[in-house]
Sequence to fold (470 residues):
Amino acid sequence: MRIAVVGSGYVGLVAGACLADIGHHVILVDNDEQKLAALGKGEVPIHEKFLPELLERHRGARMTFSDNLAEAVRSSTVIFIAVGTPPTEEGEADLSYVESVARSISGGINGYKVLVEKSTVPVYTSDWIRKIILRNATAPDSFDVVSNPEFLREGSAVTDFLYPDRIVVGADNERSAAVLREVYEPLTGAKYYREKTAIPGPDNAAVPPPIIITSAKSAELIKHASNAFLAMKISFINAVASICESVGANVQQVCQGIGTDSRIGPRFLNPGIGYGGSCFPKDLLAFRSVARQCNYEFRLLDEVIRINEDQRQRFLRKVRNALWTLRGKRLGALGLAFKGGTDDIRESPAVLLIKSLVQEGCKISAYDPAARPRAEEEFKSSIEFATGPYEAARGADALLILTEWEEFAHLDLARLRKELKDPIIIDGRNLYDPQTMAENGFTYYSVGRPAASAETLQDAAASPIKIRQA
Ligand code: UGA
Fold:
Protein backbone atom coordinates (compact mmCIF):
# COMPACT_ATOMS: atom_id res chain seq x y z
CA MET A 1 0.00 0.00 0.00
CA ARG A 2 1.19 3.58 -0.67
CA ILE A 3 1.37 5.62 2.50
CA ALA A 4 2.39 9.22 3.24
CA VAL A 5 3.58 10.05 6.74
CA VAL A 6 3.51 13.77 7.50
CA GLY A 7 6.02 14.88 10.13
CA SER A 8 9.43 13.29 10.65
CA GLY A 9 9.56 13.73 14.43
CA TYR A 10 9.79 10.80 16.83
CA VAL A 11 6.46 9.18 15.97
CA GLY A 12 6.50 10.00 12.24
CA LEU A 13 10.03 8.74 11.65
CA VAL A 14 9.57 5.51 13.60
CA ALA A 15 6.08 4.84 12.16
CA GLY A 16 7.35 5.54 8.62
CA ALA A 17 10.34 3.21 8.96
CA CYS A 18 8.24 0.45 10.54
CA LEU A 19 5.44 0.75 7.95
CA ALA A 20 8.12 0.34 5.27
CA ASP A 21 9.50 -2.69 7.10
CA ILE A 22 6.11 -4.41 7.13
CA GLY A 23 5.92 -4.00 3.36
CA HIS A 24 4.41 -0.61 2.50
CA HIS A 25 5.77 2.15 0.26
CA VAL A 26 6.21 5.19 2.46
CA ILE A 27 6.81 8.86 1.59
CA LEU A 28 7.94 10.75 4.67
CA VAL A 29 6.95 14.41 4.33
CA ASP A 30 8.42 17.31 6.26
CA ASN A 31 8.80 21.02 5.61
CA ASP A 32 12.26 21.08 7.21
CA GLU A 33 14.55 20.77 4.20
CA GLN A 34 17.70 20.36 6.29
CA LYS A 35 16.16 17.45 8.16
CA LEU A 36 15.09 15.80 4.91
CA ALA A 37 18.55 16.26 3.42
CA ALA A 38 20.13 14.68 6.51
CA LEU A 39 17.70 11.74 6.40
CA GLY A 40 18.36 11.32 2.68
CA LYS A 41 22.09 11.02 3.45
CA GLY A 42 21.42 8.31 6.01
CA GLU A 43 21.77 10.42 9.16
CA VAL A 44 19.47 9.37 12.00
CA PRO A 45 18.38 12.34 14.15
CA ILE A 46 17.33 10.35 17.25
CA HIS A 47 18.96 7.70 19.42
CA GLU A 48 16.66 4.72 18.92
CA LYS A 49 17.55 1.04 18.74
CA PHE A 50 16.95 -0.60 15.30
CA LEU A 51 16.02 2.71 13.64
CA PRO A 52 19.37 3.10 11.82
CA GLU A 53 19.03 -0.47 10.44
CA LEU A 54 15.48 0.17 9.23
CA LEU A 55 16.36 3.47 7.56
CA GLU A 56 19.38 1.88 5.92
CA ARG A 57 17.23 -1.03 4.73
CA HIS A 58 14.47 1.08 3.15
CA ARG A 59 15.94 4.50 2.36
CA GLY A 60 15.55 5.28 -1.34
CA ALA A 61 13.61 2.04 -1.88
CA ARG A 62 10.40 1.51 0.11
CA MET A 63 11.00 4.78 1.98
CA THR A 64 11.48 8.16 0.33
CA PHE A 65 11.52 11.72 1.66
CA SER A 66 9.72 14.77 0.30
CA ASP A 67 8.74 18.32 1.18
CA ASN A 68 5.81 18.29 -1.26
CA LEU A 69 2.75 17.34 0.77
CA ALA A 70 0.11 17.72 -1.96
CA GLU A 71 2.15 15.51 -4.30
CA ALA A 72 2.65 12.88 -1.57
CA VAL A 73 -1.12 12.90 -0.90
CA ARG A 74 -1.87 12.42 -4.59
CA SER A 75 0.30 9.33 -4.78
CA SER A 76 -0.89 7.75 -1.49
CA THR A 77 -4.05 6.06 -0.27
CA VAL A 78 -3.38 6.54 3.43
CA ILE A 79 -1.95 9.73 4.98
CA PHE A 80 -0.68 9.53 8.55
CA ILE A 81 -0.54 12.90 10.31
CA ALA A 82 2.29 12.81 12.85
CA VAL A 83 3.11 16.47 13.36
CA GLY A 84 3.81 18.04 16.76
CA THR A 85 1.07 19.13 19.13
CA PRO A 86 3.01 21.27 21.64
CA PRO A 87 1.28 22.66 24.72
CA THR A 88 -0.05 26.24 24.75
CA GLU A 89 0.52 28.52 27.78
CA GLU A 90 -2.74 27.16 29.23
CA GLY A 91 -1.65 23.55 28.77
CA GLU A 92 -3.99 22.82 25.87
CA ALA A 93 -2.65 21.00 22.81
CA ASP A 94 -1.73 23.52 20.10
CA LEU A 95 -3.30 22.05 16.97
CA SER A 96 -2.14 24.68 14.50
CA TYR A 97 0.30 22.30 12.76
CA VAL A 98 -2.44 19.68 12.43
CA GLU A 99 -4.78 22.31 10.96
CA SER A 100 -2.24 23.58 8.47
CA VAL A 101 -1.43 20.02 7.34
CA ALA A 102 -5.16 19.28 6.96
CA ARG A 103 -5.54 22.34 4.69
CA SER A 104 -2.61 21.27 2.52
CA ILE A 105 -3.89 17.68 2.32
CA SER A 106 -7.20 18.85 0.86
CA GLY A 107 -5.27 20.22 -2.16
CA GLY A 108 -4.01 16.72 -3.03
CA ILE A 109 -7.19 14.64 -2.71
CA ASN A 110 -7.64 13.01 -6.11
CA GLY A 111 -9.53 9.84 -5.11
CA TYR A 112 -10.58 8.08 -1.89
CA LYS A 113 -8.05 8.81 0.90
CA VAL A 114 -7.90 7.85 4.55
CA LEU A 115 -6.34 10.47 6.80
CA VAL A 116 -4.98 9.00 10.01
CA GLU A 117 -4.34 11.00 13.19
CA LYS A 118 -1.18 9.54 14.67
CA SER A 119 -0.21 12.57 16.79
CA THR A 120 -1.65 12.64 20.31
CA VAL A 121 -4.65 14.92 19.95
CA PRO A 122 -7.68 15.86 22.05
CA VAL A 123 -11.08 14.32 21.46
CA TYR A 124 -12.98 15.98 18.56
CA THR A 125 -9.78 16.58 16.53
CA SER A 126 -10.87 14.12 13.83
CA ASP A 127 -14.14 16.06 13.50
CA TRP A 128 -12.17 19.28 13.09
CA ILE A 129 -9.86 17.80 10.48
CA ARG A 130 -12.91 16.66 8.55
CA LYS A 131 -14.54 20.12 8.75
CA ILE A 132 -11.35 21.88 7.59
CA ILE A 133 -11.03 19.59 4.58
CA LEU A 134 -14.71 19.96 3.67
CA ARG A 135 -14.35 23.76 3.86
CA ASN A 136 -11.88 23.46 1.00
CA ALA A 137 -14.71 22.16 -1.20
CA THR A 138 -13.54 18.54 -1.03
CA ALA A 139 -16.27 15.95 -1.78
CA PRO A 140 -17.45 14.36 1.52
CA ASP A 141 -17.16 10.78 0.20
CA SER A 142 -13.61 11.27 -1.10
CA PHE A 143 -11.97 10.89 2.30
CA ASP A 144 -12.36 9.67 5.87
CA VAL A 145 -10.52 10.67 9.04
CA VAL A 146 -9.43 7.88 11.37
CA SER A 147 -7.74 8.04 14.77
CA ASN A 148 -4.91 5.53 15.24
CA PRO A 149 -3.12 6.45 18.46
CA GLU A 150 0.49 5.39 18.88
CA PHE A 151 1.68 3.85 22.15
CA LEU A 152 5.40 3.58 21.43
CA ARG A 153 7.91 4.54 24.12
CA GLU A 154 11.16 6.32 23.45
CA GLY A 155 14.08 3.95 23.78
CA SER A 156 12.07 0.97 22.54
CA ALA A 157 10.06 2.76 19.85
CA VAL A 158 10.71 0.36 16.96
CA THR A 159 9.85 -2.82 18.86
CA ASP A 160 6.87 -1.10 20.50
CA PHE A 161 5.53 -0.26 17.03
CA LEU A 162 6.16 -3.71 15.56
CA TYR A 163 5.14 -5.72 18.65
CA PRO A 164 2.33 -3.61 20.16
CA ASP A 165 0.09 -4.85 22.98
CA ARG A 166 -2.79 -3.72 20.76
CA ILE A 167 -3.54 -1.63 17.70
CA VAL A 168 -6.35 0.87 18.24
CA VAL A 169 -8.24 2.14 15.20
CA GLY A 170 -10.95 4.74 15.73
CA ALA A 171 -12.97 4.69 12.52
CA ASP A 172 -16.53 5.90 12.12
CA ASN A 173 -17.32 3.70 9.10
CA GLU A 174 -16.41 0.26 7.78
CA ARG A 175 -14.82 1.60 4.57
CA SER A 176 -12.01 3.41 6.41
CA ALA A 177 -11.67 0.68 9.08
CA ALA A 178 -11.05 -1.85 6.28
CA VAL A 179 -8.19 0.27 4.90
CA LEU A 180 -6.49 0.43 8.32
CA ARG A 181 -7.00 -3.32 8.78
CA GLU A 182 -5.09 -3.78 5.52
CA VAL A 183 -2.30 -1.45 6.67
CA TYR A 184 -1.74 -3.54 9.81
CA GLU A 185 -2.48 -6.96 8.24
CA PRO A 186 1.25 -7.93 8.14
CA LEU A 187 1.24 -7.62 11.97
CA THR A 188 -2.29 -8.81 12.84
CA GLY A 189 -2.00 -11.70 10.35
CA ALA A 190 1.52 -12.47 11.75
CA LYS A 191 3.15 -12.56 8.27
CA TYR A 192 5.80 -10.05 9.40
CA TYR A 193 6.85 -12.17 12.38
CA ARG A 194 7.61 -15.15 10.12
CA GLU A 195 10.05 -13.15 7.98
CA LYS A 196 13.76 -13.86 8.50
CA THR A 197 14.58 -10.15 8.41
CA ALA A 198 11.92 -9.19 11.00
CA ILE A 199 13.21 -7.01 13.83
CA PRO A 200 13.31 -9.28 16.92
CA GLY A 201 10.63 -8.60 19.51
CA PRO A 202 10.52 -8.84 23.30
CA ASP A 203 9.98 -12.31 24.86
CA ASN A 204 6.54 -11.43 26.18
CA ALA A 205 5.25 -9.91 22.91
CA ALA A 206 1.53 -10.43 22.18
CA VAL A 207 1.99 -11.94 18.70
CA PRO A 208 -0.09 -11.38 16.66
CA PRO A 209 -1.43 -8.22 18.25
CA PRO A 210 -5.18 -7.67 18.47
CA ILE A 211 -6.75 -4.80 16.56
CA ILE A 212 -9.41 -2.89 18.45
CA ILE A 213 -11.86 -0.94 16.31
CA THR A 214 -13.64 1.91 18.08
CA SER A 215 -15.27 5.21 17.20
CA ALA A 216 -12.82 8.03 16.39
CA LYS A 217 -13.70 9.86 19.62
CA SER A 218 -13.12 6.75 21.75
CA ALA A 219 -9.71 6.22 20.14
CA GLU A 220 -8.74 9.84 20.84
CA LEU A 221 -9.73 9.36 24.47
CA ILE A 222 -7.94 5.99 24.72
CA LYS A 223 -4.60 7.70 24.04
CA HIS A 224 -5.03 10.46 26.62
CA ALA A 225 -6.54 8.10 29.18
CA SER A 226 -3.71 5.55 28.73
CA ASN A 227 -0.98 8.11 29.32
CA ALA A 228 -2.86 9.66 32.24
CA PHE A 229 -3.36 6.23 33.82
CA LEU A 230 0.33 5.33 33.49
CA ALA A 231 1.38 8.68 34.98
CA MET A 232 -1.11 8.09 37.80
CA LYS A 233 0.47 4.70 38.49
CA ILE A 234 3.89 6.36 38.80
CA SER A 235 2.61 9.14 41.06
CA PHE A 236 0.73 6.59 43.16
CA ILE A 237 3.82 4.53 43.84
CA ASN A 238 5.87 7.68 44.45
CA ALA A 239 3.31 8.71 47.11
CA VAL A 240 3.50 5.21 48.64
CA ALA A 241 7.32 5.47 48.58
CA SER A 242 7.09 8.68 50.64
CA ILE A 243 5.03 6.87 53.29
CA CYS A 244 7.53 3.99 53.23
CA GLU A 245 10.30 6.50 53.97
CA SER A 246 8.36 7.90 56.93
CA VAL A 247 7.72 4.53 58.54
CA GLY A 248 10.92 2.73 57.53
CA ALA A 249 9.22 0.27 55.15
CA ASN A 250 10.65 -0.82 51.80
CA VAL A 251 8.69 0.25 48.71
CA GLN A 252 10.23 -2.56 46.66
CA GLN A 253 8.64 -5.11 48.96
CA VAL A 254 5.37 -3.18 48.84
CA CYS A 255 5.51 -3.17 45.02
CA GLN A 256 6.14 -6.90 44.96
CA GLY A 257 3.14 -7.36 47.22
CA ILE A 258 0.76 -5.23 45.20
CA GLY A 259 2.16 -5.84 41.71
CA THR A 260 1.58 -9.60 41.91
CA ASP A 261 -2.16 -8.92 42.07
CA SER A 262 -2.96 -9.54 38.40
CA ARG A 263 -5.52 -6.72 38.50
CA ILE A 264 -2.72 -4.26 39.32
CA GLY A 265 0.35 -5.71 37.59
CA PRO A 266 4.02 -4.98 38.36
CA ARG A 267 4.86 -2.61 35.47
CA PHE A 268 5.14 1.17 35.85
CA LEU A 269 5.40 0.80 39.61
CA ASN A 270 9.00 1.98 39.85
CA PRO A 271 9.30 4.92 42.20
CA GLY A 272 11.89 7.55 41.35
CA ILE A 273 12.34 11.26 40.80
CA GLY A 274 9.07 11.63 38.88
CA TYR A 275 8.07 11.11 35.28
CA GLY A 276 9.29 13.41 32.50
CA GLY A 277 9.60 13.40 28.74
CA SER A 278 7.73 14.96 25.87
CA CYS A 279 4.52 13.01 26.50
CA PHE A 280 3.28 12.51 30.07
CA PRO A 281 3.70 16.09 31.34
CA LYS A 282 2.16 17.58 28.16
CA ASP A 283 -0.59 14.99 27.78
CA LEU A 284 -1.76 15.28 31.38
CA LEU A 285 -2.21 19.03 31.00
CA ALA A 286 -3.98 18.54 27.67
CA PHE A 287 -6.30 15.85 29.07
CA ARG A 288 -7.15 18.07 32.03
CA SER A 289 -8.03 20.89 29.59
CA VAL A 290 -10.18 18.54 27.51
CA ALA A 291 -12.03 17.46 30.67
CA ARG A 292 -12.52 21.09 31.70
CA GLN A 293 -13.97 21.93 28.29
CA CYS A 294 -16.42 19.08 28.85
CA ASN A 295 -17.35 20.62 32.23
CA TYR A 296 -15.53 17.98 34.23
CA GLU A 297 -12.88 19.05 36.76
CA PHE A 298 -10.45 16.11 36.64
CA ARG A 299 -8.89 16.84 40.06
CA LEU A 300 -7.25 13.44 40.17
CA LEU A 301 -4.94 14.67 37.39
CA ASP A 302 -4.07 17.81 39.40
CA GLU A 303 -2.89 15.55 42.20
CA VAL A 304 -0.91 13.27 39.85
CA ILE A 305 0.93 16.36 38.56
CA ARG A 306 1.45 17.76 42.07
CA ILE A 307 2.91 14.50 43.41
CA ASN A 308 5.22 14.35 40.41
CA GLU A 309 6.60 17.83 41.06
CA ASP A 310 6.87 17.14 44.78
CA GLN A 311 8.95 14.05 44.06
CA ARG A 312 11.79 16.22 42.73
CA GLN A 313 11.62 18.47 45.80
CA ARG A 314 11.82 15.40 48.04
CA PHE A 315 14.95 14.27 46.21
CA LEU A 316 16.53 17.71 46.65
CA ARG A 317 15.78 17.51 50.39
CA LYS A 318 17.50 14.12 50.45
CA VAL A 319 20.62 15.64 48.87
CA ARG A 320 20.55 18.47 51.42
CA ASN A 321 20.07 16.06 54.31
CA ALA A 322 22.96 13.92 53.12
CA LEU A 323 25.39 16.81 52.59
CA TRP A 324 24.16 19.43 55.08
CA THR A 325 25.13 22.52 53.04
CA LEU A 326 25.19 22.61 49.26
CA ARG A 327 27.11 25.75 48.28
CA GLY A 328 30.47 24.78 46.76
CA LYS A 329 29.80 21.02 46.94
CA ARG A 330 30.95 18.95 44.00
CA LEU A 331 28.38 16.39 42.81
CA GLY A 332 28.67 13.68 40.20
CA ALA A 333 25.41 13.17 38.27
CA LEU A 334 24.68 9.98 36.37
CA GLY A 335 21.99 10.60 33.77
CA LEU A 336 20.57 13.57 31.92
CA ALA A 337 17.97 11.93 29.65
CA PHE A 338 14.39 11.77 30.94
CA LYS A 339 14.74 7.99 31.06
CA GLY A 340 17.22 5.29 30.02
CA GLY A 341 17.68 4.32 26.38
CA THR A 342 17.10 7.75 24.86
CA ASP A 343 18.99 11.00 24.24
CA ASP A 344 15.83 13.05 24.86
CA ILE A 345 16.09 15.59 27.67
CA ARG A 346 12.69 17.24 27.21
CA GLU A 347 11.05 17.73 30.65
CA SER A 348 13.77 15.53 32.07
CA PRO A 349 13.58 15.38 35.88
CA ALA A 350 17.38 14.88 35.86
CA VAL A 351 17.89 18.18 34.04
CA LEU A 352 15.43 20.03 36.29
CA LEU A 353 17.15 18.67 39.41
CA ILE A 354 20.63 19.58 38.17
CA LYS A 355 19.42 23.13 37.41
CA SER A 356 18.12 23.49 40.99
CA LEU A 357 21.41 22.18 42.40
CA VAL A 358 23.45 24.57 40.23
CA GLN A 359 21.26 27.41 41.52
CA GLU A 360 22.07 26.34 45.06
CA GLY A 361 25.77 26.68 44.29
CA CYS A 362 26.76 23.05 43.56
CA LYS A 363 29.37 22.15 40.97
CA ILE A 364 28.10 19.32 38.79
CA SER A 365 29.99 16.82 36.69
CA ALA A 366 27.41 14.91 34.64
CA TYR A 367 27.59 11.83 32.49
CA ASP A 368 24.95 10.38 30.18
CA PRO A 369 25.61 7.66 27.58
CA ALA A 370 23.55 9.44 24.89
CA ALA A 371 22.13 12.80 25.94
CA ARG A 372 25.33 14.84 26.20
CA PRO A 373 25.02 16.76 22.88
CA ARG A 374 21.47 17.89 23.70
CA ALA A 375 22.39 18.64 27.32
CA GLU A 376 25.39 20.73 26.23
CA GLU A 377 23.02 23.00 24.32
CA GLU A 378 20.82 23.28 27.42
CA PHE A 379 23.47 23.81 30.11
CA LYS A 380 26.20 25.56 28.06
CA SER A 381 29.12 25.89 30.49
CA SER A 382 27.10 25.87 33.74
CA ILE A 383 28.06 22.22 34.40
CA GLU A 384 30.94 19.93 33.43
CA PHE A 385 30.42 16.91 31.20
CA ALA A 386 32.25 13.71 32.07
CA THR A 387 33.10 11.01 29.53
CA GLY A 388 32.14 8.14 31.84
CA PRO A 389 30.54 7.35 35.21
CA TYR A 390 33.86 7.10 37.09
CA GLU A 391 35.04 10.45 35.78
CA ALA A 392 31.73 12.00 36.91
CA ALA A 393 32.32 10.57 40.40
CA ARG A 394 35.98 11.72 40.60
CA GLY A 395 36.56 13.89 43.66
CA ALA A 396 32.82 14.37 44.25
CA ASP A 397 31.19 14.90 47.65
CA ALA A 398 28.40 12.58 46.51
CA LEU A 399 27.14 10.78 43.43
CA LEU A 400 23.54 11.18 42.22
CA ILE A 401 21.84 8.58 40.03
CA LEU A 402 19.18 10.39 38.01
CA THR A 403 18.38 8.25 34.95
CA GLU A 404 17.67 4.51 34.87
CA TRP A 405 20.31 3.61 32.22
CA GLU A 406 21.09 -0.10 32.32
CA GLU A 407 24.87 0.60 32.52
CA PHE A 408 24.41 2.59 35.75
CA ALA A 409 23.08 -0.53 37.46
CA HIS A 410 26.34 -2.47 36.87
CA LEU A 411 29.10 -0.16 38.06
CA ASP A 412 32.34 -1.39 39.59
CA LEU A 413 31.58 -0.42 43.19
CA ALA A 414 35.16 -0.65 44.45
CA ARG A 415 36.35 1.66 41.68
CA LEU A 416 33.47 4.05 42.29
CA ARG A 417 34.29 4.24 45.96
CA LYS A 418 37.90 5.10 45.22
CA GLU A 419 36.87 7.89 42.82
CA LEU A 420 34.46 9.60 45.24
CA LYS A 421 35.76 12.02 47.85
CA ASP A 422 33.01 10.86 50.20
CA PRO A 423 31.34 7.51 49.52
CA ILE A 424 27.79 8.89 49.39
CA ILE A 425 25.32 7.82 46.72
CA ILE A 426 21.84 9.26 46.36
CA ASP A 427 20.00 7.03 43.95
CA GLY A 428 16.84 8.52 42.44
CA ARG A 429 16.12 5.34 40.46
CA ASN A 430 16.63 2.53 43.01
CA LEU A 431 19.22 0.75 40.88
CA TYR A 432 21.08 -0.92 43.76
CA ASP A 433 20.33 -3.10 46.75
CA PRO A 434 20.84 -0.92 49.88
CA GLN A 435 22.52 -3.68 51.88
CA THR A 436 25.04 -4.42 49.09
CA MET A 437 25.88 -0.73 48.92
CA ALA A 438 26.45 -0.55 52.67
CA GLU A 439 28.60 -3.70 52.52
CA ASN A 440 30.69 -1.96 49.85
CA GLY A 441 31.32 0.97 52.13
CA PHE A 442 28.78 3.46 50.83
CA THR A 443 26.24 5.60 52.59
CA TYR A 444 23.35 4.95 50.27
CA TYR A 445 20.04 6.80 49.98
CA SER A 446 17.31 5.72 47.56
CA VAL A 447 13.58 6.24 47.08
CA GLY A 448 11.08 4.63 49.46
CA ARG A 449 13.71 2.38 51.10
CA PRO A 450 15.63 2.84 54.33
CA ALA A 451 19.01 4.53 54.00
CA ALA A 452 21.94 2.11 54.30
CA SER A 453 25.46 2.62 55.67
CA ALA A 454 28.09 0.97 57.86
CA GLU A 455 26.01 2.06 60.88
CA THR A 456 22.78 0.46 59.66
CA LEU A 457 24.73 -2.75 58.98
CA GLN A 458 25.98 -2.76 62.57
CA ASP A 459 22.46 -2.09 63.89
CA ALA A 460 21.11 -4.92 61.75
CA ALA A 461 23.85 -7.27 63.01
CA ALA A 462 22.96 -6.38 66.61
CA SER A 463 19.20 -6.83 66.03
CA PRO A 464 17.73 -10.18 67.17
CA ILE A 465 15.22 -10.14 64.25
CA LYS A 466 16.61 -10.86 60.80
CA ILE A 467 14.57 -9.68 57.83
CA ARG A 468 15.83 -10.49 54.34
CA GLN A 469 15.45 -7.39 52.15
CA ALA A 470 13.97 -7.95 48.68
C1 UGA B 1 5.02 7.29 27.12
C2 UGA B 1 4.12 6.06 27.13
O1 UGA B 1 4.70 5.03 27.94
C3 UGA B 1 3.92 5.52 25.71
O2 UGA B 1 3.00 4.43 25.72
C4 UGA B 1 3.36 6.65 24.84
O3 UGA B 1 3.20 6.24 23.49
C5 UGA B 1 4.31 7.82 24.89
O4 UGA B 1 4.46 8.27 26.25
C6 UGA B 1 3.70 8.93 24.03
O5 UGA B 1 2.61 9.41 24.37
O6 UGA B 1 4.24 9.23 22.97
P1 UGA B 1 7.69 7.69 26.95
O7 UGA B 1 7.38 9.13 27.25
O8 UGA B 1 8.59 7.37 25.84
O9 UGA B 1 6.30 6.89 26.66
O10 UGA B 1 8.33 7.07 28.25
P2 UGA B 1 7.90 6.09 29.46
O11 UGA B 1 8.66 4.84 29.35
O12 UGA B 1 6.45 6.00 29.58
O13 UGA B 1 8.49 6.92 30.72
C7 UGA B 1 7.97 8.21 31.05
C8 UGA B 1 8.60 8.71 32.32
O14 UGA B 1 8.14 7.97 33.45
C9 UGA B 1 10.13 8.61 32.36
O15 UGA B 1 10.65 9.79 32.94
C10 UGA B 1 10.40 7.41 33.26
O16 UGA B 1 11.63 7.48 33.91
C11 UGA B 1 9.23 7.52 34.23
N1 UGA B 1 8.85 6.22 34.84
C12 UGA B 1 8.38 5.21 34.09
C13 UGA B 1 8.95 6.08 36.23
O17 UGA B 1 9.37 7.01 36.96
N2 UGA B 1 8.55 4.88 36.81
C14 UGA B 1 8.07 3.85 36.05
O18 UGA B 1 7.72 2.80 36.64
C15 UGA B 1 7.98 4.02 34.67
